[in-house]
Fold this sequence. Notes:
Layout: H1 2-16, E1 27-29, E2 36-38, H2 39-44, H3 60-67, E3 73-75, H4 94-105, E4 111-118, E5 121-128, H5 139-155, E6 159-165, H6 174-177, H7 179-192, E7 197-205, H8 207-210, E8 219-222, H9 233-240, H10 251-256, E9 262-263, H11 269-281, H12 290-293, E10 294-295, E11 298-299, H13 307-318, H14 346-357
Parallel strand pairs: 5-6, 6-7, 7-8, 8-9
Antiparallel strand pairs: 1-2, 3-4, 4-5, 10-11
Helix pairs in contact: 5-7
Amino acid sequence: MNWINNVVRPKIRSFLGTKNEMPENAWRTCPETGQMVYYKDLEANDFVFPGSEYHEQMDAPTRLAHIFDEGVFERIAVPEVVQDPLKFRDSRRYTDRLKTAKSETDQNDAVVVGEGLIQGLRSVVAVQDFRFMAGSLGMAAGEAIIAGMQRALASKTPFVLFSASGGARMQEGILSLMQMPRTTIAVQQLREACLPYIVVLTHPTTGGVTASYAMLGDIQIAEPKALICFAGPRVIQQTIREQLPEGFQRSEYLLDHGMIDMVVHRHKLTETIARVCSVLMSQPLTRKSAAADKMNGAHVNGATVDNAGLEVADKIDDGTDEDAVVIDAEPVSSEKRFVTEPKTGGKKAGTSRKSADS
């Protein structure tokens, strides 16, 4: 059998002219270091290159499956809009561009909205997909974001937005710019209802999206080294004719200058969003299982899992361990709350110190 597999079959393939080619997308190259990583390994690492920690773009379905518990979520229906209201045409017709983008991404437009549980806390999440015409903001994208915010208002849940866009969609002209104030009004409605609006800025977030809803979050989170700006650094450098500082308009630069609240690695992003929403909503989280955070027997940061400790913690939390001792907190009367008793001995300590100095 080895002789047939190793000799006969390769000769038959050479006669027939067939080649056993590897798929085109089997390997990915890191833009920073040039490191080649197998696609399955990169996918298992949440599309973060292990050597450089470069965060590759994630499509909307993958992002939603990554953020929700067990990857389970319900897509929210989005109202349909007119496809080509201006009959726009440049090198290609706008309708043709839409058909190409829909066939390549299997999506109706650049924004996908889903609802599900994030560590047990129900939330609504909208994701901009950069693959769909560079995640540009048009009428359909604006309707999707507004529909997601209205769903959050109706269900009284947090609203999380993952932004990735090149700006407003020029093929829709003024109609695309109108989505900026429309989404801003929806953000204000969330604020009046006291519902959290969390924005996660991913690479890249530019143009009219940055100038509107992407910078209006209650908490602004960004992935490492993401480009966040209105006009790009090359345009600014050509305009002012001066050398820009290193890392200009990147996540870390904006964090140092107070534009965003935190820069979070993708491996810790779900935990951070859940914790922030839990604090703002005053709702406890359902503790996530260790198996969901493990990869090949270890956490994403390389630390091994202490299974014995987790089992004991599970028994104590569930109340199933008879030998476990749980100490309840002693109740405090309302008169004693937030009342600090005067310390005794402080005056003596000062006196003895004074006598020692003398």
